[in-house]
Amino acid sequence: xxxxxxxxxEGQKPGTSGLRKKVRIFxxxxxxxxxxxxxxxxxxxxxxKTLVVGGDGRYYNRxxxxxxxxxxxxxxxxxxxxxxxxxxxxxxxSAVIRKYKAFGGLILSASHNPGGPDGDFGIKYNISNGGPAxxxxxxxxxxxxxxxxxxxxxxxxxxxxxxLGSYHIGDMLVEIIDPVADYAELMASxxxxxxxxxxxxxxxxxxxxxxxxxxxxxxxxxxxxxxGAPQGSVINGEPLADFGGGHPDPNLTYAKDLVEIMYAExxxxxxxxxxxxGDRNMILGTNFFVNPSDSLAVLAANAHWVPGYENxxxxxxxxxPTSQAVDRVAEQLRIECFETPTGxxxxxxxxxxxxxxxxxxESFGTGSDHVRxxxxxxxxxxxxxxxxxxxxxxxxxxxxxxxxxxxxxxTRHDHEGIDSNGAQQLMSHLQQQLPELPGKTFxxxxxxxxxxxxxTDPIDGSISTGQGLRIGFDNxxxxxxxLSGTGTEGATLRIYIEKFEADTNKHDQDPQxxxxxxxxxxxxxxxxxxxxxxxxxxxxx
Length: 541
Ligand code: G1P
Ligand code: ZN
Description:
- This protein is of the alpha/beta class.
- The protein is 32% helix and 25% strand.
């Protein structure tokens, strides 16, 4: 074992989901080591305990895992469980941490950000409940990283990551595990696999786009091998270190291959995609897009059809910018509904306390208390379970939902890679206006409240401020502005717009049409063009 001298790097501050930087930054000597040591030094009582390690297979995954294994040994962990080839999807890592009662896990991923030598890399620590470390811990890790002067690392050969089995680094046991098996077993325990199997072997066609990312092996195993979907139902199923040069984000812009297939003539009945590390999902029907906020509401309203949830839901939660569609379902089910800041870590306490069963975000994230991360393939299986039982198309399920609960028209406009100063100025310009907005009228809308969202965790009382600027109008109509905490280039401004429509005759409109006046108000209020030089978003959801 060696103690290596080092000095702090600026900016090792975990964002919405772990530390994300350009690969080249991570490749600097001692950069990764400093962060990992800061994590280990911040943890109490790791001696002899089990750590889970795996990543989404992106460029630098293997090298990073070799470093982490040697550092884990030198820091006194007793055992590391690592996915074969260094792979573990984020939800599978969460499942493995929980199943084996590990002390925690290090997940290597920059989620939906592009990979490759010029792309992004990332690392995050998950605690023993399988979920992302809470802010208190990530803040402490950051503080430590700013004062670090040494890290501990064992010497030795690289680990044979490609072979299942176990070996030792010093006193520490390394077990190389099948990355899919534990996760597949968990899915089989939640869903009616028999019903889904008979649907998928009846000529019902699906297309799952793994976007050359981690969920390829998971989807092939579960959808094709176990559930009998014809070979080829999973496309782009080989994980590649650079995701084939693509942007592994399952939305209508980046999941091009899937969108082409699902909007073509003779399209399959069901389409889905997941992201770089497998925790996001996009659901499509034939020529039909399911908004992620609606998807959460549909899962909640139909949970009684699904074996793992048939006993009812404790409650539900959504992130603040997520549409209020699920609130309407919660009201009818007479269960609690929580509004949390953006980022999965805020669901952890509610899930652990048994206050919620399902939760989700508008950013293509849906999940439940089965793990402590959002889970892309889980959402796909949930939908397939509902479709198999109800025997209806995706469109029929969605229309029926809107006719029962009304429709929350919703869109998110992303302005990616804008100048950071301009973005800051735009936000302060808005912030300054907030106190004067209530009572003001824009077109047919009158502002009923405006604030900078802050959240008090109902379980541990911790307070998170500065979580997005909200401008609320009557009847749940809202405009929200946030700067992304996951981007690595310049700044990304997200504008979220929502409006409720009870009238079934109006439910077929395109959301961009239904929201056109609010979109205009949103862009004018923040002086979009003046501060960003943009008049159109880079991505519309
Ligand atoms: C984005 C999403 C957020 C999600 C996070 C991690 O964060 O908006 O909902 O939890 O990615 O997947 P943002 O870039 O907006 O900070
Ligand atoms: Zn992700």
